[in-house]
Amino acid sequence: MSSGANSSGANGSGPAAGADSAGTAGGSASLAVDGLVAGYGEVIALDGVTVTAGAGSITAVLGANGAGKTTLLRAVSGLIKTRRGQILLADHDVAGRGPEQIVRAGIAHVPEGQGVIPELTVEENLRVGMMSWRRGQRADRAAALEEEYARFKPLADRRRKLASTLSGGERQMLVIARALLARPRVLLLDEPSLGLAPRVMAQVMDLVVRLSREHGLTIVLVEQNARGALAIADHGVVLNLGRVVASADAATLAADVALRHHYLGF
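Above: the chain's sequence. Below: its structure in token form.
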């Protein structure tokens, strides 16, 4: 369900610089967070966090409520300022940049809570995802929209409906499609299965796998459903009170009985 339209960024048309194919902005890119410190006011929520997501891989970020998972994604996407550390997108440090600059660099963030704009239609919500594009031909944008409608058929049927009328699963489709329209190289997903029925949750996880395996998108997946996340991830990181307490391949983490008991709840 990722993007596949070929829209050129040359001559000021098409999406942000380098965007060229299947939900990516210039191909796969690694993401490396090194020694990241961030927080809210006097509270340190991330204390020297180091996480590496290989290009085209799925990295699951796990931990209890308050561990720092959402803060990590918010720091990477520029929604909160970092106090120290690096955020390397394909070896280019984007720490300290604003959210719009980070989107243009190739990182898209799907926040927790199915964050649609309810008073806008489905299509108007999707067009928000193309705000980072350079000025381009109308045909490029229309083709990109139709590509997402082909991928998320329930959205195609409701493109003129207000987003407030969508089901929970349809809202999750909408926010992911909107993020893909920014043509990211790295996609940050915060609790994409939260509140969804098991069948819809399975569809979302299948989507995540296809975005990575078929289109080379680098995905950082924050999930309370640790078992489900580790089942599809290549690598896993466990946070506790703002620090990394475990980092290993997903199968190793899933098999660690003590780790599951103390930090993952299964």
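Residues 10-264 form a domain with the Rossmann fold fold (CATH 3.40.50.300).
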